[in-house]
Amino acid sequence: MLDLNNHSIILASGSPRRHQFLTEMGLPFKVRLKPVDEVYPFELEGSEISDYLAKLKADVFEGSLKTNEILITSDTVVWHNGLSLAKAADAQEAYDMLSTLSGDWHDVITSVCFTTSNTQKVVRQITKVKFRHLLDEEIHFYINTYKPYDKAGAYGIQEWIGLIGIEEIKGSYPNVVGLPTQLVYKTLRTMVK
Question: The whole model's pTM is what?
Answer without folding.
Answer: 0.94
